[in-house]
Amino acid sequence: MNNMDIKFEKDKILILAAVCLAGIILPVSFSGGAVATPAIGRDLGGSPVALNWITNAFMLTFGVFQMASGALADEFGRKRIFTSGVALFAVISLALGFAPSILILDLLRAVQGLAGAATLAGGAALLAQEFEGPARTRAYSMLGTAFGIGLAFGPLSAGFLTETFGWRFIFVSTAVIAVLALLLGAPRMRESRDPQAAGLDWPGTIAFTGALSLFTFGVVQAPASGWTSVLVIALLVGAAVLLAAFIVIETRLARPMLDVSLFRYPRFVGVQILPIATSCCFVVLLVLLPLRFIGIEGHSEIGAGLLLLSLSTPMLAVPSLVATLTRWVSAGILSGVGLLIAAAGLALLSRVDIGSSGHAVVMPMLLIGIGAGMPWGLMDGLSVSVVPKERAGMAAGIFNTMRVASEGVAIAFVSAILVLLSQSTLQGMLPNADSATSARITITAERVAAGDLGRAAQLLPEISRAVLSQSYADAFRDLLYIMIAITIIAALAVFAFLGRTAVTTAITTTTESDAERQILPCVGKAPCVGKAN
After folding, report:
1. Is the pTM of the predicted complex or chain greater than 0.90?
2. Which helix (H) or strand (E) holds 231?
Protein backbone atom coordinates (compact mmCIF):
# COMPACT_ATOMS: atom_id res chain seq x y z
CA MET A 1 0.00 0.00 0.00
CA ASN A 2 1.54 3.32 -1.07
CA ASN A 3 1.43 6.59 0.83
CA MET A 4 -1.59 7.81 -1.13
CA ASP A 5 -3.60 4.72 -0.21
CA ILE A 6 -2.59 5.03 3.44
CA LYS A 7 -3.72 8.68 3.51
CA PHE A 8 -6.99 7.72 1.83
CA GLU A 9 -7.71 5.03 4.41
CA LYS A 10 -6.75 7.37 7.26
CA ASP A 11 -9.14 10.00 5.92
CA LYS A 12 -11.94 7.43 5.84
CA ILE A 13 -11.30 6.46 9.45
CA LEU A 14 -11.38 10.10 10.53
CA ILE A 15 -14.59 10.71 8.58
CA LEU A 16 -16.16 7.72 10.33
CA ALA A 17 -14.92 9.03 13.69
CA ALA A 18 -16.46 12.42 12.95
CA VAL A 19 -19.86 10.96 12.06
CA CYS A 20 -19.78 8.66 15.12
CA LEU A 21 -18.96 11.60 17.42
CA ALA A 22 -21.96 13.40 15.98
CA GLY A 23 -23.95 10.21 16.51
CA ILE A 24 -23.08 10.13 20.20
CA ILE A 25 -24.20 13.68 20.98
CA LEU A 26 -27.68 13.31 19.46
CA PRO A 27 -29.06 10.85 22.06
CA VAL A 28 -27.05 12.62 24.77
CA SER A 29 -28.84 15.86 23.88
CA PHE A 30 -32.19 14.12 24.25
CA SER A 31 -31.58 12.28 27.53
CA GLY A 32 -29.34 15.01 28.97
CA GLY A 33 -32.10 17.57 28.65
CA ALA A 34 -34.45 15.30 30.57
CA VAL A 35 -31.98 14.79 33.44
CA ALA A 36 -31.25 18.51 33.61
CA THR A 37 -34.90 19.61 33.64
CA PRO A 38 -35.27 19.81 37.46
CA ALA A 39 -32.07 21.84 37.76
CA ILE A 40 -33.13 24.11 34.90
CA GLY A 41 -36.47 24.66 36.61
CA ARG A 42 -34.74 25.65 39.86
CA ASP A 43 -32.45 28.06 38.01
CA LEU A 44 -34.67 29.63 35.35
CA GLY A 45 -38.12 28.93 36.75
CA GLY A 46 -40.89 28.47 34.21
CA SER A 47 -44.25 26.76 34.11
CA PRO A 48 -44.54 22.98 33.84
CA VAL A 49 -45.57 23.41 30.19
CA ALA A 50 -42.42 25.44 29.50
CA LEU A 51 -40.27 22.82 31.26
CA ASN A 52 -41.88 20.05 29.18
CA TRP A 53 -40.80 21.84 26.04
CA ILE A 54 -37.14 21.37 27.00
CA THR A 55 -37.50 17.82 25.71
CA ASN A 56 -40.51 18.15 23.43
CA ALA A 57 -39.08 21.01 21.34
CA PHE A 58 -35.95 19.01 20.52
CA MET A 59 -37.82 15.80 19.73
CA LEU A 60 -40.47 17.60 17.66
CA THR A 61 -38.09 19.28 15.22
CA PHE A 62 -35.70 16.32 15.18
CA GLY A 63 -38.55 14.06 14.07
CA VAL A 64 -40.33 16.46 11.74
CA PHE A 65 -37.28 17.33 9.66
CA GLN A 66 -35.90 13.81 9.15
CA MET A 67 -37.36 13.32 5.67
CA ALA A 68 -36.80 16.94 4.66
CA SER A 69 -33.14 16.79 5.69
CA GLY A 70 -32.59 13.69 3.58
CA ALA A 71 -34.12 15.39 0.54
CA LEU A 72 -31.98 18.50 1.10
CA ALA A 73 -28.85 16.36 1.38
CA ASP A 74 -29.60 14.77 -2.00
CA GLU A 75 -30.34 18.17 -3.55
CA PHE A 76 -27.61 20.42 -2.11
CA GLY A 77 -24.91 17.93 -1.08
CA ARG A 78 -24.42 15.43 1.72
CA LYS A 79 -21.25 17.10 3.02
CA ARG A 80 -22.88 20.52 3.00
CA ILE A 81 -25.90 19.35 4.99
CA PHE A 82 -23.80 17.39 7.49
CA THR A 83 -21.27 20.15 8.14
CA SER A 84 -24.01 22.79 8.28
CA GLY A 85 -25.98 20.64 10.70
CA VAL A 86 -23.00 19.97 12.98
CA ALA A 87 -21.89 23.61 12.91
CA LEU A 88 -25.40 24.82 13.75
CA PHE A 89 -25.64 22.17 16.46
CA ALA A 90 -22.40 23.43 18.02
CA VAL A 91 -23.46 27.07 17.94
CA ILE A 92 -26.92 26.39 19.38
CA SER A 93 -25.52 24.07 22.07
CA LEU A 94 -23.12 26.79 23.15
CA ALA A 95 -25.96 29.32 23.17
CA LEU A 96 -28.02 26.93 25.31
CA GLY A 97 -25.24 27.03 27.87
CA PHE A 98 -25.87 30.75 28.27
CA ALA A 99 -29.68 30.80 27.87
CA PRO A 100 -31.08 33.60 30.11
CA SER A 101 -34.67 32.35 30.28
CA ILE A 102 -36.76 29.24 29.83
CA LEU A 103 -38.43 30.70 26.72
CA ILE A 104 -35.09 31.29 24.99
CA LEU A 105 -33.91 27.85 26.03
CA ASP A 106 -37.02 26.16 24.57
CA LEU A 107 -36.65 28.04 21.28
CA LEU A 108 -32.98 27.10 21.07
CA ARG A 109 -33.83 23.46 21.75
CA ALA A 110 -36.17 23.50 18.75
CA VAL A 111 -33.37 24.79 16.52
CA GLN A 112 -31.00 22.23 18.04
CA GLY A 113 -33.39 19.45 17.02
CA LEU A 114 -33.47 20.77 13.45
CA ALA A 115 -29.67 20.80 13.39
CA GLY A 116 -29.67 17.24 14.73
CA ALA A 117 -31.92 16.08 11.88
CA ALA A 118 -29.56 17.61 9.30
CA THR A 119 -26.56 16.03 11.06
CA LEU A 120 -28.08 12.55 11.02
CA ALA A 121 -29.30 12.71 7.42
CA GLY A 122 -26.04 14.12 6.06
CA GLY A 123 -23.81 11.85 8.13
CA ALA A 124 -25.66 8.68 7.14
CA ALA A 125 -25.45 9.60 3.44
CA LEU A 126 -21.74 10.43 3.76
CA LEU A 127 -20.94 6.97 5.10
CA ALA A 128 -22.74 5.42 2.13
CA GLN A 129 -20.52 7.51 -0.14
CA GLU A 130 -17.19 6.81 1.60
CA PHE A 131 -17.53 3.06 2.27
CA GLU A 132 -18.52 0.08 0.13
CA GLY A 133 -19.45 -3.53 0.72
CA PRO A 134 -18.46 -5.08 4.06
CA ALA A 135 -16.65 -1.85 5.06
CA ARG A 136 -19.95 0.01 4.77
CA THR A 137 -21.62 -2.59 6.95
CA ARG A 138 -18.96 -2.12 9.62
CA ALA A 139 -19.22 1.66 9.36
CA TYR A 140 -22.95 1.64 10.00
CA SER A 141 -22.48 -0.86 12.79
CA MET A 142 -20.05 1.52 14.47
CA LEU A 143 -22.46 4.41 14.04
CA GLY A 144 -25.21 2.31 15.56
CA THR A 145 -22.90 1.51 18.46
CA ALA A 146 -22.17 5.23 18.87
CA PHE A 147 -25.87 5.89 19.22
CA GLY A 148 -26.11 3.11 21.78
CA ILE A 149 -23.25 4.61 23.79
CA GLY A 150 -24.92 8.01 23.78
CA LEU A 151 -28.23 6.51 24.81
CA ALA A 152 -26.72 4.33 27.54
CA PHE A 153 -24.38 6.83 29.15
CA GLY A 154 -26.13 10.09 28.32
CA PRO A 155 -28.14 10.21 31.58
CA LEU A 156 -25.09 9.42 33.71
CA SER A 157 -22.85 11.98 32.00
CA ALA A 158 -25.62 14.58 32.21
CA GLY A 159 -26.09 13.84 35.90
CA PHE A 160 -22.36 14.14 36.59
CA LEU A 161 -22.05 17.44 34.71
CA THR A 162 -25.18 18.89 36.34
CA GLU A 163 -24.13 17.99 39.85
CA THR A 164 -20.45 18.90 39.42
CA PHE A 165 -20.48 21.96 37.16
CA GLY A 166 -24.14 22.86 36.61
CA TRP A 167 -26.69 22.02 33.93
CA ARG A 168 -25.27 24.52 31.44
CA PHE A 169 -22.14 22.40 31.02
CA ILE A 170 -24.23 19.62 29.45
CA PHE A 171 -24.83 21.81 26.43
CA VAL A 172 -21.34 23.31 26.42
CA SER A 173 -19.81 19.82 26.37
CA THR A 174 -21.95 18.76 23.39
CA ALA A 175 -20.85 21.93 21.60
CA VAL A 176 -17.20 20.97 22.15
CA ILE A 177 -17.77 17.45 20.79
CA ALA A 178 -19.63 18.86 17.77
CA VAL A 179 -16.72 21.18 16.99
CA LEU A 180 -14.31 18.24 17.27
CA ALA A 181 -16.47 16.22 14.85
CA LEU A 182 -16.45 19.14 12.43
CA LEU A 183 -12.68 19.55 12.59
CA LEU A 184 -12.11 15.83 12.06
CA GLY A 185 -14.51 15.36 9.19
CA ALA A 186 -14.99 18.54 7.18
CA PRO A 187 -11.47 18.80 5.64
CA ARG A 188 -11.58 15.17 4.48
CA MET A 189 -15.15 14.74 3.24
CA ARG A 190 -16.02 14.76 -0.45
CA GLU A 191 -19.16 16.41 -1.73
CA SER A 192 -21.83 14.36 -3.49
CA ARG A 193 -25.40 14.87 -4.68
CA ASP A 194 -28.19 12.85 -6.21
CA PRO A 195 -28.31 13.91 -9.88
CA GLN A 196 -31.94 12.78 -10.05
CA ALA A 197 -33.04 14.65 -6.91
CA ALA A 198 -36.42 16.27 -7.45
CA GLY A 199 -36.00 18.93 -4.77
CA LEU A 200 -37.79 19.33 -1.49
CA ASP A 201 -41.50 18.66 -1.37
CA TRP A 202 -42.37 22.02 0.21
CA PRO A 203 -46.19 21.58 0.39
CA GLY A 204 -45.81 18.14 1.95
CA THR A 205 -43.11 19.29 4.35
CA ILE A 206 -45.16 22.27 5.51
CA ALA A 207 -48.30 20.18 5.97
CA PHE A 208 -46.48 17.40 7.84
CA THR A 209 -44.57 19.83 10.05
CA GLY A 210 -47.72 21.76 10.83
CA ALA A 211 -49.74 18.64 11.65
CA LEU A 212 -47.18 17.20 14.05
CA SER A 213 -46.45 20.60 15.62
CA LEU A 214 -50.11 21.44 16.25
CA PHE A 215 -50.79 17.99 17.67
CA THR A 216 -47.83 18.21 20.04
CA PHE A 217 -48.78 21.75 21.08
CA GLY A 218 -52.32 20.59 21.78
CA VAL A 219 -51.27 17.63 23.90
CA VAL A 220 -48.70 19.64 25.88
CA GLN A 221 -51.15 22.49 26.46
CA ALA A 222 -54.08 20.25 27.41
CA PRO A 223 -53.19 19.83 31.12
CA ALA A 224 -53.02 23.60 31.63
CA SER A 225 -55.99 24.65 29.49
CA GLY A 226 -58.13 21.54 29.71
CA TRP A 227 -58.80 18.91 27.05
CA THR A 228 -62.14 20.53 26.17
CA SER A 229 -60.83 24.09 25.95
CA VAL A 230 -61.27 25.99 22.69
CA LEU A 231 -57.50 26.34 22.27
CA VAL A 232 -56.74 22.63 22.64
CA ILE A 233 -59.63 21.54 20.43
CA ALA A 234 -58.56 24.06 17.76
CA LEU A 235 -54.99 22.78 17.85
CA LEU A 236 -56.03 19.13 17.56
CA VAL A 237 -58.56 19.83 14.78
CA GLY A 238 -55.95 21.87 12.94
CA ALA A 239 -53.52 18.95 13.22
CA ALA A 240 -56.12 16.58 11.75
CA VAL A 241 -56.84 18.95 8.85
CA LEU A 242 -53.16 19.35 8.01
CA LEU A 243 -52.60 15.60 8.24
CA ALA A 244 -55.43 15.04 5.76
CA ALA A 245 -53.93 17.72 3.50
CA PHE A 246 -50.53 16.01 3.72
CA ILE A 247 -52.02 12.68 2.62
CA VAL A 248 -53.81 14.32 -0.31
CA ILE A 249 -50.63 16.15 -1.36
CA GLU A 250 -48.52 12.99 -1.26
CA THR A 251 -51.01 10.94 -3.29
CA ARG A 252 -50.81 13.47 -6.15
CA LEU A 253 -47.03 13.71 -6.47
CA ALA A 254 -44.98 11.71 -8.96
CA ARG A 255 -42.13 11.37 -6.40
CA PRO A 256 -43.82 11.74 -3.00
CA MET A 257 -41.94 12.25 0.23
CA LEU A 258 -44.20 9.60 1.74
CA ASP A 259 -45.82 6.92 -0.40
CA VAL A 260 -49.09 6.26 1.44
CA SER A 261 -49.78 3.21 -0.74
CA LEU A 262 -47.26 1.28 1.37
CA PHE A 263 -49.83 1.23 4.15
CA ARG A 264 -51.84 -1.20 2.05
CA TYR A 265 -49.38 -3.89 3.11
CA PRO A 266 -50.57 -5.31 6.46
CA ARG A 267 -47.02 -6.35 7.40
CA PHE A 268 -45.75 -2.82 6.76
CA VAL A 269 -48.45 -1.49 9.08
CA GLY A 270 -47.31 -4.05 11.64
CA VAL A 271 -43.76 -2.72 11.46
CA GLN A 272 -44.97 0.81 12.26
CA ILE A 273 -46.36 -0.53 15.53
CA LEU A 274 -42.86 -1.33 16.79
CA PRO A 275 -41.52 2.23 17.23
CA ILE A 276 -44.81 3.30 18.82
CA ALA A 277 -44.57 0.42 21.29
CA THR A 278 -40.92 1.00 22.19
CA SER A 279 -41.63 4.71 22.60
CA CYS A 280 -44.42 3.97 25.06
CA CYS A 281 -42.59 1.30 27.10
CA PHE A 282 -39.02 2.60 26.97
CA VAL A 283 -38.31 6.06 25.53
CA VAL A 284 -40.85 7.89 27.70
CA LEU A 285 -39.20 6.46 30.81
CA LEU A 286 -35.94 8.21 29.88
CA VAL A 287 -37.87 11.44 30.46
CA LEU A 288 -40.24 10.49 33.27
CA LEU A 289 -37.87 8.57 35.54
CA PRO A 290 -35.29 11.35 36.01
CA LEU A 291 -38.13 13.61 37.19
CA ARG A 292 -39.27 10.90 39.59
CA PHE A 293 -35.81 10.02 40.90
CA ILE A 294 -34.62 13.62 41.33
CA GLY A 295 -37.79 15.59 42.00
CA ILE A 296 -39.93 13.12 43.94
CA GLU A 297 -37.52 10.68 45.57
CA GLY A 298 -34.70 13.16 46.17
CA HIS A 299 -31.86 11.36 44.40
CA SER A 300 -28.93 13.41 43.17
CA GLU A 301 -28.45 13.91 39.44
CA ILE A 302 -25.56 11.44 39.48
CA GLY A 303 -27.62 8.95 41.47
CA ALA A 304 -30.46 9.22 38.96
CA GLY A 305 -28.01 8.71 36.10
CA LEU A 306 -26.60 5.59 37.73
CA LEU A 307 -30.07 4.15 38.24
CA LEU A 308 -30.98 4.81 34.61
CA LEU A 309 -28.01 2.73 33.46
CA SER A 310 -30.02 -0.41 34.19
CA LEU A 311 -32.67 0.83 31.74
CA SER A 312 -30.39 2.00 28.94
CA THR A 313 -27.29 -0.21 28.92
CA PRO A 314 -29.11 -3.30 27.54
CA MET A 315 -29.31 -1.33 24.28
CA LEU A 316 -25.57 -1.82 23.87
CA ALA A 317 -25.74 -5.62 23.67
CA VAL A 318 -29.30 -6.90 23.27
CA PRO A 319 -29.94 -5.71 19.67
CA SER A 320 -26.83 -7.44 18.33
CA LEU A 321 -27.54 -10.61 20.32
CA VAL A 322 -31.12 -10.79 19.08
CA ALA A 323 -29.89 -10.23 15.52
CA THR A 324 -28.08 -13.57 15.68
CA LEU A 325 -31.26 -15.31 16.88
CA THR A 326 -33.07 -14.40 13.65
CA ARG A 327 -31.21 -17.29 12.03
CA TRP A 328 -33.55 -19.62 13.90
CA VAL A 329 -36.53 -17.53 15.07
CA SER A 330 -38.73 -15.11 13.16
CA ALA A 331 -37.88 -11.45 13.73
CA GLY A 332 -41.58 -10.78 14.30
CA ILE A 333 -41.76 -13.40 17.05
CA LEU A 334 -38.63 -12.06 18.73
CA SER A 335 -40.03 -8.52 18.60
CA GLY A 336 -43.34 -9.59 20.13
CA VAL A 337 -41.59 -11.56 22.88
CA GLY A 338 -39.45 -8.54 23.63
CA LEU A 339 -42.50 -6.33 24.07
CA LEU A 340 -44.02 -8.86 26.47
CA ILE A 341 -40.78 -8.86 28.50
CA ALA A 342 -40.93 -5.06 28.59
CA ALA A 343 -44.54 -5.23 29.76
CA ALA A 344 -43.47 -7.58 32.57
CA GLY A 345 -40.80 -5.07 33.58
CA LEU A 346 -43.40 -2.28 33.64
CA ALA A 347 -45.62 -4.46 35.82
CA LEU A 348 -42.77 -4.99 38.30
CA LEU A 349 -41.98 -1.27 38.27
CA SER A 350 -45.60 -0.50 39.14
CA ARG A 351 -45.12 -2.45 42.39
CA VAL A 352 -42.14 -0.35 43.52
CA ASP A 353 -43.23 2.26 46.05
CA ILE A 354 -41.99 5.83 46.04
CA GLY A 355 -39.09 6.12 48.46
CA SER A 356 -38.08 2.48 48.20
CA SER A 357 -34.41 1.68 47.87
CA GLY A 358 -32.98 2.65 44.52
CA HIS A 359 -32.00 -0.97 44.01
CA ALA A 360 -35.70 -1.91 43.94
CA VAL A 361 -36.11 -0.33 40.49
CA VAL A 362 -33.01 -1.92 38.96
CA MET A 363 -34.54 -5.29 38.05
CA PRO A 364 -37.75 -3.83 36.57
CA MET A 365 -35.80 -1.32 34.51
CA LEU A 366 -33.36 -4.01 33.38
CA LEU A 367 -36.27 -6.12 32.14
CA ILE A 368 -37.76 -3.12 30.33
CA GLY A 369 -34.42 -2.36 28.69
CA ILE A 370 -33.89 -5.97 27.60
CA GLY A 371 -37.44 -6.28 26.31
CA ALA A 372 -37.38 -3.01 24.37
CA GLY A 373 -33.91 -3.83 23.04
CA MET A 374 -35.19 -6.94 21.25
CA PRO A 375 -37.35 -5.16 18.63
CA TRP A 376 -35.06 -2.09 18.76
CA GLY A 377 -32.36 -3.80 16.70
CA LEU A 378 -34.81 -5.60 14.40
CA MET A 379 -37.10 -2.73 13.41
CA ASP A 380 -34.93 -1.27 10.65
CA GLY A 381 -34.48 -4.56 8.85
CA LEU A 382 -38.16 -5.40 9.19
CA SER A 383 -39.18 -2.04 7.74
CA VAL A 384 -37.67 -2.97 4.39
CA SER A 385 -38.17 -6.76 4.42
CA VAL A 386 -41.97 -6.57 4.46
CA VAL A 387 -42.39 -4.62 1.21
CA PRO A 388 -41.31 -5.29 -2.40
CA LYS A 389 -37.60 -4.65 -2.89
CA GLU A 390 -38.18 -1.69 -5.21
CA ARG A 391 -40.00 0.10 -2.37
CA ALA A 392 -37.29 -0.48 0.25
CA GLY A 393 -35.86 3.04 0.22
CA MET A 394 -39.24 4.73 0.65
CA ALA A 395 -40.29 2.21 3.33
CA ALA A 396 -37.14 2.92 5.33
CA GLY A 397 -37.69 6.68 5.08
CA ILE A 398 -41.27 6.38 6.32
CA PHE A 399 -40.19 4.13 9.17
CA ASN A 400 -37.36 6.42 10.27
CA THR A 401 -39.76 9.36 10.44
CA MET A 402 -42.39 7.29 12.23
CA ARG A 403 -39.83 6.18 14.80
CA VAL A 404 -38.55 9.62 15.78
CA ALA A 405 -41.93 11.34 15.48
CA SER A 406 -43.62 8.69 17.63
CA GLU A 407 -41.02 9.24 20.35
CA GLY A 408 -41.80 12.95 20.55
CA VAL A 409 -45.56 12.44 20.47
CA ALA A 410 -45.38 9.64 23.06
CA ILE A 411 -43.40 11.82 25.47
CA ALA A 412 -45.90 14.66 25.15
CA PHE A 413 -48.91 12.37 25.45
CA VAL A 414 -47.66 10.35 28.44
CA SER A 415 -46.65 13.53 30.30
CA ALA A 416 -50.14 14.95 29.75
CA ILE A 417 -51.77 11.74 31.00
CA LEU A 418 -49.62 11.79 34.13
CA VAL A 419 -50.83 15.33 34.89
CA LEU A 420 -54.44 14.28 34.29
CA LEU A 421 -54.12 11.28 36.63
CA SER A 422 -52.41 13.37 39.31
CA GLN A 423 -55.12 16.03 39.01
CA SER A 424 -57.84 13.39 39.41
CA THR A 425 -56.16 12.04 42.55
CA LEU A 426 -55.86 15.51 44.12
CA GLN A 427 -59.44 16.39 43.29
CA GLY A 428 -60.52 13.20 45.06
CA MET A 429 -58.76 14.48 48.19
CA LEU A 430 -60.63 17.80 48.03
CA PRO A 431 -64.07 16.83 46.70
CA ASN A 432 -65.76 20.07 47.74
CA ALA A 433 -63.20 22.43 46.24
CA ASP A 434 -64.45 25.72 44.80
CA SER A 435 -63.42 27.03 41.38
CA ALA A 436 -60.36 28.86 42.72
CA THR A 437 -59.14 25.76 44.56
CA SER A 438 -59.82 23.62 41.49
CA ALA A 439 -57.59 25.94 39.48
CA ARG A 440 -54.85 25.57 42.10
CA ILE A 441 -55.28 21.81 41.97
CA THR A 442 -54.66 21.84 38.21
CA ILE A 443 -51.47 23.87 38.55
CA THR A 444 -50.36 21.73 41.49
CA ALA A 445 -50.89 18.55 39.48
CA GLU A 446 -48.65 19.96 36.75
CA ARG A 447 -45.95 20.71 39.31
CA VAL A 448 -46.25 17.26 40.89
CA ALA A 449 -45.99 15.54 37.50
CA ALA A 450 -42.89 17.64 36.76
CA GLY A 451 -41.29 16.48 40.02
CA ASP A 452 -41.50 19.92 41.65
CA LEU A 453 -42.92 19.02 45.06
CA GLY A 454 -41.65 22.21 46.72
CA ARG A 455 -43.72 24.55 44.58
CA ALA A 456 -46.63 22.11 44.54
CA ALA A 457 -46.79 22.23 48.35
CA GLN A 458 -46.80 26.03 48.26
CA LEU A 459 -49.64 26.11 45.75
CA LEU A 460 -51.82 23.70 47.73
CA PRO A 461 -50.98 23.98 51.44
CA GLU A 462 -54.16 22.08 52.34
CA ILE A 463 -52.33 18.88 51.37
CA SER A 464 -49.05 17.84 52.97
CA ARG A 465 -45.91 17.18 51.00
CA ALA A 466 -46.07 13.50 51.91
CA VAL A 467 -49.61 13.22 50.56
CA LEU A 468 -48.58 15.04 47.38
CA SER A 469 -45.79 12.52 46.96
CA GLN A 470 -48.29 9.69 47.38
CA SER A 471 -50.60 11.29 44.82
CA TYR A 472 -47.72 11.20 42.35
CA ALA A 473 -47.07 7.55 43.20
CA ASP A 474 -50.71 6.66 42.55
CA ALA A 475 -50.77 8.59 39.27
CA PHE A 476 -47.46 7.09 38.12
CA ARG A 477 -48.70 3.57 38.91
CA ASP A 478 -51.92 4.14 36.94
CA LEU A 479 -49.86 5.50 34.06
CA LEU A 480 -47.73 2.36 34.09
CA TYR A 481 -50.93 0.29 33.86
CA ILE A 482 -51.84 2.20 30.69
CA MET A 483 -48.34 1.68 29.30
CA ILE A 484 -48.56 -2.04 30.10
CA ALA A 485 -51.85 -2.32 28.23
CA ILE A 486 -50.48 -0.50 25.18
CA THR A 487 -47.35 -2.67 25.15
CA ILE A 488 -49.29 -5.94 25.41
CA ILE A 489 -51.74 -4.90 22.69
CA ALA A 490 -48.80 -3.92 20.50
CA ALA A 491 -47.14 -7.29 21.15
CA LEU A 492 -50.28 -9.16 20.11
CA ALA A 493 -50.54 -7.03 16.97
CA VAL A 494 -46.89 -7.75 16.15
CA PHE A 495 -47.48 -11.49 16.54
CA ALA A 496 -50.50 -11.23 14.22
CA PHE A 497 -48.87 -9.06 11.52
CA LEU A 498 -45.23 -10.15 11.69
CA GLY A 499 -45.16 -13.55 13.35
CA ARG A 500 -43.90 -15.30 10.23
CA THR A 501 -41.77 -12.48 8.85
CA ALA A 502 -38.04 -13.09 8.49
CA VAL A 503 -35.93 -9.98 8.59
CA THR A 504 -33.48 -11.28 6.02
CA THR A 505 -36.02 -11.75 3.22
CA ALA A 506 -35.36 -8.52 1.37
CA ILE A 507 -31.63 -8.61 2.00
CA THR A 508 -31.13 -11.97 0.32
CA THR A 509 -33.28 -11.24 -2.74
CA THR A 510 -32.28 -7.71 -3.68
CA THR A 511 -29.54 -6.12 -5.70
CA GLU A 512 -26.48 -4.45 -4.19
CA SER A 513 -28.00 -0.98 -4.51
CA ASP A 514 -31.20 -2.11 -2.83
CA ALA A 515 -29.29 -3.64 0.07
CA GLU A 516 -27.27 -0.47 0.49
CA ARG A 517 -30.45 1.56 0.77
CA GLN A 518 -31.75 -0.86 3.36
CA ILE A 519 -28.63 -0.54 5.49
CA LEU A 520 -28.65 3.25 5.38
CA PRO A 521 -31.68 3.85 7.65
CA CYS A 522 -30.27 1.57 10.32
CA VAL A 523 -28.12 4.32 11.78
CA GLY A 524 -30.82 5.87 13.92
CA LYS A 525 -30.52 3.49 16.85
CA ALA A 526 -28.75 0.21 17.51
CA PRO A 527 -27.03 -1.76 14.75
CA CYS A 528 -29.43 -3.04 12.11
CA VAL A 529 -30.10 -6.74 11.74
CA GLY A 530 -29.77 -6.66 7.99
CA LYS A 531 -26.11 -5.83 8.27
CA ALA A 532 -25.32 -8.91 10.30
CA ASN A 533 -26.91 -11.23 7.85
Report:
1. no
2. helix 230-251
